[in-house]
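Newbie here. two chains, one complex. Structure please?
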Amino acid sequence: MAVAAAEPETIWKPTVEELASRPIVIEVDHLDWSFGARQVLFNVSMKVHEGEIMVIMGGSGSGKTTLLRHLVGLMPPVANKVKLLGQDIGSLKALEKLELRRKIGVAFQFGALFSSMNVAENVKLPLRELAHLDEKTMDIMARLKLEVVNMSGFGHLMPAELSGGMVKRASIARAIVMDPKLLFLDEPSSGLDPVVSSALDDLILRLREAMGISVVVVTHDVESAFKIGDRITVLDRGHILACEPPDQIRVNSNERVQNLINRRSEHVEVDPEEYLRRLAGD
Amino acid sequence: MAAVLKVFEAIGRRTAKGFDEWGFGAALLAESVMWVFVGRYYRQPVRFSHTFAEMMRFGIAALPIAILLSATIGLMLAIQSLYSLGLFGAQNFAYIGIALSVTREFSPLIMGILIAGRSGSAIAARLATMTINQEVDALQVMGINPVRFLVAPMLIALVIMLPCLAMLANLVSIGAAALYVSASLDTSLGSYIYNTLQILKTDDVWHGIIKSSFFGLLIGLIGVMNGAGVSGGAEGVGRVTTRSVVQAITAIVVSDMVIGYLSTH
């Protein structure tokens, strides 16, 4: 008996027009940043709408992690540069900042799970420290979130016992346990094989669909960026080269954007005589 | 000339870095104290369960080695006291030196050095690993203040447990010395204990307790300062761990001398 091939499940994505009509939840306004004499961000501006998945893409050293650290408030505050949910994080008081942080979830590149706690305790930590719920309720909520990320039954494991993909999923479960309005993911697919990476992309899309949250994903994985992003911001050497929907990014005329999405190294003209002179130390 | 300038530049840089580190330590202490008092207002109290867990780790888990070291110190002091006082035929007064030196000096100092090696290094290594693994960043973005969650329980635990260990060390050291002296001089154990209690004043015991509390604070702050300032991956963790032990022991010995001088003049 022939078995019909399963239809690939399509995950809902809002249109760009639909997203543009929604309120802005993240706003970066002409942000410059330097580490000492080395400037890493130049006049960066971007807006993310409610329910949008914004992918920040760029090569190594492009400034995307620095930008993400600004967005989640891990860099020294700068007034009137970064607004989350309408609040300027550079001028918030300590108590207001704590309140705002309850509304955002962050999953770090390497998970940042607490190695002394098992997966369930890691997921419960924000609830235990911030929500003041009873143990039973926290157990239920942690179990629910672990189920959302397909990790049910693994709560008792320690982080050291998890595979790379499981660490990422557990980290996402912890990031969404407080039902945040904004979710930030740092390199969610790095170090994962293509199958696990693709499953993680589906998870991100489903999370947006189920929870209606806005997601900012920092990645250099082109395939993943095109799959999940409603818009893609291409960052290169601290400058934003483009901020467009994936289909427009594909046909963007900027050479550097094309180099990045087609994984081409930059062509550098070499003068053989000059090269030999440098080698000889003249 | 250039070489001399380089030396001065290096000294200047190190001095500035030292001030910077101690400023960071002072800020950590101030913030920890603040969280103890205002944590409830921010709905982020310093958890008793965390503090209790640290107390178990720093204090109770160190009991076997603390008892062994204290007994050895007591016996060593008894042996040396009997030998040196024997030169003058004054062995019967050994209890005076033993009682005062144990309570005022040896117990706080030896327990301080023990905990600096055992727990100071663990604090530095733990915080350094957490910093490198972005666990500290994770706490911050969750809205959980790392000083309140990690540092304050450690400092409270050390400030409480080190004096407790020093008190225990007093009992064990004096007990071990009493057994040795009474057996060597063929006198009763009871009379040794009686004489010791007669010579010891409450101030002597308090001197040791306050000093060991201060040592606990030093160990905690130095461990945290080094752990939080880590850079350079696994190698960096090893470096800050060693550095924190060396710094803590140096700080304990130097401050012990200063406190000893100030309290006797």
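Moderator note: Chain B touches chain A at residues 42-44, 129-130, 133-135, 137-138, 140-145, 149 (CB under 8 Å). DSSP finds nine helices and no strands in chain B. Thread marked as resolved.
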